[in-house]
């Protein structure tokens, strides 16, 4: 049996505006329930929405960064459904006239470039948050509603069904996060829910009977990259197994309008069917009479385009060109804007890009990974700034401390937030590089090991290492090993 | 277009979250049918090249600055709730098929 | 003349000259309320203490102001300070119940004031109470109120019109001097006509909708009801103006409406849309309106027949768009954050369905059902979108008509006030009563209804319609007519008498 996996994603990203989409309430995360609420975002009778201009700017910038066409004429529609977290019982969203359409994102999978189509990016409002009395919605006696989050601006990004594997889906999502973070429109924290993903997946199966497409399953509310990949892997496997077991449905069965909504149980590692819909939901969209249309001039759009920072793709090729980095290194260093900035600024301060890239990709990453999967977040919350890192690396570069000490100092910097100079002084790690300081010690070691000196003179050059080791031991590792070697060779010749 | 069936009335009531009595369903089937028959006169008009009017006043780009304003005291927000619990609004069990 | 029967303009002068105090005026109004309210039921909520406290404050300020020129200037800039005003109960009033005429919101106390409420408070006006209305403004008789119907002060066996029936009746009866109403399809003008008062629906966007419980959001406008045109202009002055909280609010300098009242109608081109003088209009009403047209003509206006060919379609289109919008606007009443919640529902969906079903009346349910259907999958294009296209045609009709004339004159209503119970069980017949007012809302235009005589002892309304933002022209024309014709001596209306036998009247 031969099959192809077809995946499309719907991604929701909260925008980093200070205030909500329709009112002045704060968008800050994690406060007491129902303390960031006003009559407008509570949907009290008579209240009206007023559009936050920053949200429009951010949504359009996201569209531009994703290669979209920006609509000259756009408007807001009401998407109607009843749910306790939706105060007006409609979500103000965009239906047939979204702000952005027809973009594309290039991802690299196994060293090959793949293009993923973006169907649309639109602006809409976030719902409130439910807390269930039990462990989950299912089986809870009651639920509690907090409307703090209700009304935060969101963009919904819909991809074409261009993704061909769960891994591709994860890579795409990582890329999307990188881009949105580069342009500063969303912090994309999956763990706080500011980035969420629904995945649509089905299979195109080819066998002797011809081609068959399995019904599309939409997996809702995936809240980590790992969950996206695992859930899709599970679902693909499940659809294959189901086909193997049951084969095609009886002739005449119309599956084209069937869509199954599934949830993902992280603990059990499996998807479960939430509901089977015979027809699409009837959301009764219509233009919101409370909100006049948004009409964007090309000057405005071009102004926003000009404000976009260098995007990851451009930065990657510049790093290769400017710093002579290998393709892999350039890709890794530009996968996060914070990392790229750390690299580039540290490289400027030290004048040694190669050394900095080795240290960032090696030691710095090793430390950050201890703080979770999200390198960018870990980096933003630690004390390793370009200036601090450059200070340390200059010690190493100028051979004032050796590489092993350098690693020890970096770890200490990361842990305590102290500066390199301070740690080195406290630990007395600076190398002894004075010829005069070392000459006496070298003479002593030579005098104390006449046998070894004899061996060396007889051509056993490797034995020099032993003498160097003795000097290092005597200095508790602080001697500059290169200089010691040089002094011993000099004395014996 | 025109008339509406009893089943459609039940479906629409479900969409609108209205629990109707049997009598109400009967009554609305008749009354909505009459109203729909009456509004069908609109179909007489050829509107092929007529743009729909969603907003009667030609306003555009009405926006505000992204400025945080103080939210409202929690008591003001919760005081009209029929079931308040620890600063939350409480609702009965939520069924998954919603 | 009793204080409660004087116009705001007269009272304003008396207050400024300190011939009378705001407390006295407020007390006079409550005296009238105490005498007549039991019969008329204009109000849902009365705020006697709040009103008296506010009146005392106004008096105190005026006393302070009298000592210095600065205070006198302040009094001048607030001509309506101390004037009692009745507020339709779909306008949000902080700390005062705001029911929208619905059982659903019987216990709802808003934490905020509507923009127009802030404005009338800032103007020193005294809120007497919240007036009765058709539930969520859906109705043309105030009979769909979730509480009780209001009676027409001219004949208590008759309805006052709706949905701002309580506001119109209160002004007519001296239970308020001025009132705020809202007009989605005629809800200010129609009750004004039936109660023999003046009612103005402003251009859509002239007055803020912030704080107005939404019914048909693309039509809704707040506007003044008063005993004469001058009072109407004075109240409009307070209400009009840009509001950053309403995205559909028009950003523009507010003209001086009182100053616009002078002048005559010489050379004014007045259009008579033939569709509004059809056989469907009561002959007495038609005669009264044509007599009013004659007054304008004698004043030098040029009368011209014009045509609004899509008039008959406007009503049908309105009854698709407005219910569609209302089905959405009323979805928020789910019993969670405010409003009625059915007890003991086992799950949220059932709670929603019961809370709504148990607290909404039949007309509200009917319109929610109709609107939900018109927006639903498979019917959107045929109903909602078709109606939006027809709205364009209706608008174009007015554009063409206004290319030929400056002001349109029509009856406000096809008949005078009908009897309680006469149409309440026949939705279509009830909808037809708005035939003359609805097209105006479809096109966002301003219109005013002024009394133009009595037919069978009941008031008739003359409707003047102007192009967008031409309220000054509207007020000037209406004022000219009112001065020239003195169509009604205003208060006192015949003192309301108890209805003979209520049971015998409800025929259907």
Explain this structure to me?
By secondary structure, chain A is α+β, with helices and mostly antiparallel strands. Chain A has three domains: 301 residues, no CATH class; 118 residues, no CATH class; 58 residues, Arc Repressor Mutant, subunit A (Orthogonal Bundle), CATH 1.10.10. Helices cover 40% and strands 22% of the residues of chain A. In chain A, strand 14, helix 3 and strand 15 form a beta-alpha-beta unit. In chain A, helix 7 crosses helix 8. Chain A is elongated, with a radius of gyration of 30 Å. By secondary structure, chain B is of the alpha+beta class. Chain B has a domain of 46 residues: Glu-tRNAGln amidotransferase C subunit, N-terminal domain (Histone, subunit A, Orthogonal Bundle), CATH 1.10.20.60. In chain B, 34% of the residues lie in helices and 9% in strands. In chain B, strand 2 and strand 3 form a beta hairpin. Chain B starts with 5 loop residues before the first helix and ends in a 6-residue tail after the last strand. Chain C has an eleven-stranded mixed beta sheet with strand order 1-3-2-4-6-5-10-11-9-7-8, with helices on both faces. The C terminus of chain C is likely disordered. In chain C, helix 8 runs antiparallel to helix 16 and helix 10 packs across helix 13. With 508 residues, chain C is of the alpha/beta class. In chain C, strand 10 and strand 11 form a beta hairpin. Chains in contact: A-B, A-C, B-C. At the B-C interface, helix 1, helix 2 and strand 3 of B face helix 10, helix 11, helix 12, helix 13 and helix 14 of C.
Which pair of chains has the greatest number of interface residues, and how are they split between the two chains? Answer: B-C, 53 and 71 residues
* Rg of Cα set of chain C: 22 Å
Helix content of chain A: 40-55%
Hey, roughly how much beta strand do the residues of chain C contain?
5-15%
- Which radius of gyration of chain A do the C-alpha atoms yield? 30 Å
Quaternary structure annotation:
heterotrimer
- H/E element string of chain C? HHEHHEHEHEHEEHEHEHHHHEHHEEHH
Distance between termini of chain C?
41 Å
Mean pLDDT level of chain A: 87
Shape of chain A: elongated
Query: Mean pLDDT of chain C, rounded to whole units?
Result: 92
* End-to-end CA span of chain A: 76 Å
Number of alpha- plus pi-helical segments of chain C: 17
User: How many β-strand stretches of chain A?
Assistant: 18
Parts with pLDDT < 50 across at least 5 consecutive residues of chain A: none
Spatially, the strands of the biggest sheet of chain C line up as: 1-3-2-4-6-5-10-11-9-7-8
Global structural class of chain C: alpha/beta
Q: Biggest β-sheet of chain A: count, sense, barrel?
A: 10 strands, mixed
Percentage of residues in helical conformation of chain C: 40-55%
